[in-house]
UniProtKB/TrEMBL annotation:
UniProt-listed PROSITE patterns: CHER
Domain CheR-type methyltransferase: 11-263
Gene: cheR
GO molecular function, one term: S-adenosylmethionine-dependent methyltransferase activity
Pfam families in UniProt: CheR, CheR_N
InterPro entries: Bact_Chemotaxis_MeTrfase, CheR_C, CheR_MeTrfase, CheR_N, SAM-dependent_MTases_sf
Name of this chain's protein: Chemotaxis protein R
Superkingdom of origin organism: Bacteria
Length: 286
């Protein structure tokens, strides 16, 4: 629809509209040129990251950023890293892990083998947390954890298993509140480079690149965990990703979401039953 203006000059509405057009062109250009699809990410979240990258590149417009991204892959890499949401911690939201331990673990005990998908695993803190929990419950040896993210840089960090020592006090407290059965310090060694977690915690973990926006289902899982990722997608993309999770979960499989997320719209509400409404744990029943 074409918008008409009595006066184009100095129009705040025009400036806002122009900015949206520039961002749309930027995202479309990235998709057409490189195959990364951020077109259905939540607009305000994407806008903050675009403006941040534009300012850090010392550019005066988003159009200039588009030009630089299309001709310089290093700039693209920096922008894509900005789009990757990497806010995480070990045993984040301890009550979630406590409910998982108390309500989901008994279900998993009935399976001869277990497949878990951590979608959007970021730097891996929650992957290591789940490995510890499964180890303490005697299920780790029969479990395969698939930890995926579209950002290869954070996957490399996750594989290394090295984290800042200053985070350990908070992580220890989270671990205790989540029902931890050992001493948290037993799982890591302090080095000059930071805290290194014991190698056995990744013996049953596969770290791999996977893009929730463009990639398909790659296995059938007993558990899918995707916490605090969907909030950065628009409604249409949320529906698409929920379909991916539904297709990837086996019957009676468990879906775990973030504290601000839920089963989206009526298309999915009746195919799951709540395991824990408060902690956003659901069981596939249809």
């Amino acid at each position: 629809m074409v918008k008409e203006f009595d006066s184009f000059e100095g129009s705040e509405y025009q400036e806002i509209d122009l900015e949206k057009i520039e961002i749309q062109l930027l995202l479309q250009g990235i998709y057409d040129m490189y195959g990364y699809d951020f077109r259905e990410y939540a607009y305000h979240s994407i806008r903050r990251r675009v403006i941040h990258r534009m300012q850090n590149e010392n550019l005066s417009s988003i159009t200039q950023l588009l030009d630089k991204v299309l001709h310089d892959t290093a700039t693209l890499k920096r922008l894509v890293e900005n789009f990757s949401i990497n806010v995480t911690e070990m045993f984040r939201d301890p009550s979630f892990f406590l409910q998982f331990r108390e309500k989901v673990i008994p279900m998993l005990r009935t399976y001869p083998s277990i497949r878990i998908w951590h979608a959007g695993c970021s730097t891996g803190e929650e992957v290591y947390s789940m490995a510890m929990l499964l180890y303490e419950e005697g299920l780790y040896d029969k479990t395969k954890i698939y930890a995926t993210d579209f950002n290869t840089k954070v996957l490399k960090k996750a594989k290394r298993g090295i984290f800042p020592i200053e985070n350990m006090r908070k992580y220890t407290n989270n671990y205790i509140l989540s029902g931890g059965k050992s001493a948290f310090s037993d799982y890591y060694t302090v080095t000059d480079n930071g805290v290194v977690f014991k190698p056995f915690l990744t013996e049953h973990v596969i770290f791999a690149q996977h893009n929730l926006v463009t990639d398909k289902s790659f296995n059938e899982f007993h558990v899918i965990l995707c916490r605090n990722v969907l909030i950065y997608f628009n409604k249409e993309l949320q529906v698409k990703v929920h379909q991916l999770f539904y297709d990837s979960l086996g019957m009676f499989g468990i879906l775990g979401l973030g504290s601000k997320e839920t089963i989206y719209n009526k298309n999915y509400a009746d195919v799951y039953e709540p395991v824990s409404v408060q902690e956003k744990l659901y069981r596939k029943i249809k």
